[in-house]
Amino acid sequence: xxxxxxxxxxxxxxxxALVLRGPGTNCEDETLRALRMGGADxxxxxxxxxxxxxxxxxxxxxxxxxGGFSYGDDLAAGRVWGSSLRRHLGTALRDHVAxxxxxxxxxxxxxxxxxxxxxxxxxAPEERxxxxxxxxxxxxxxxxxxxxxxDSKCDWLTGAFGAGHHxxxxxxxxxxxxxxxxxxxxxxxxxxxxxxxxxxxxGAEGPVGYPANPNGAAGDVAGICDPTxxxxxxxxxxxxxxxxxxxxxxxxxxxxxxxxxGLAFYRALVESALAGL
Length: 277
Prior knowledge:
Structural class: alpha/beta
Helix content: 25-40%
Radius of gyration: 18 Å
CATH class: Alpha Beta
Strand order of the largest sheet: 4-3-5-6-13-12-11-8-9
Oligomer: single chain
Distance between the termini: 11 Å
CATH topology: Rossmann fold
Number of helices: 8
Number of domains: 1
């Protein structure tokens, strides 16, 4: 929290965060709690309301697209909401990032951001080289995984934790398999510093297979960012690991745990927005 002195009066300034939800979203409450525990002044807004008045996004340092099953995943996970976002809020979203604002999409929110094209701003919708497909297991995956922070353009993530940092986090999705058009597309993402998080084995060496990589993601990719590093999406749910007892083995984990590792993730996001005030 930043303190600002006005004459003889001292006021406090919190970064403002906005959680956007759509029909079928079901993780907005956990996301609001994560942002507020992380130090933000967080609000909730339906994206269709924002679509009618994009100016409602103004004044927020962080925009978060929560998880769930928008529009029932009837056409594909996130496709309907992502198409609507691109059409009605695409310009506002790009302006937000251009002005230094942060964007986060979690699980379905990540799928929505991929469909919106924010990670490939110069590509037409039909020319996108990244997508999220059905899990290789061909069923819904609900389990804990280990994430590794990569050296990426996402400065708020690498600055807070450093490349190589490991974080336990739950996943809950049926279409979370990160896919690329070809090897060249993957190399381009790596070269641009857009690979933010990957799945890794927990306490073991060797190739990362199932279930450590719960969906068969190419390159074990769990999350990516846009070329600026200010828009990020990931399939796992840090907001479901805020308290020390959220982890199923919390009594057996080494060291003292005063909070869940996901809280540090959201705190880093909020503090980065605070630095931009």
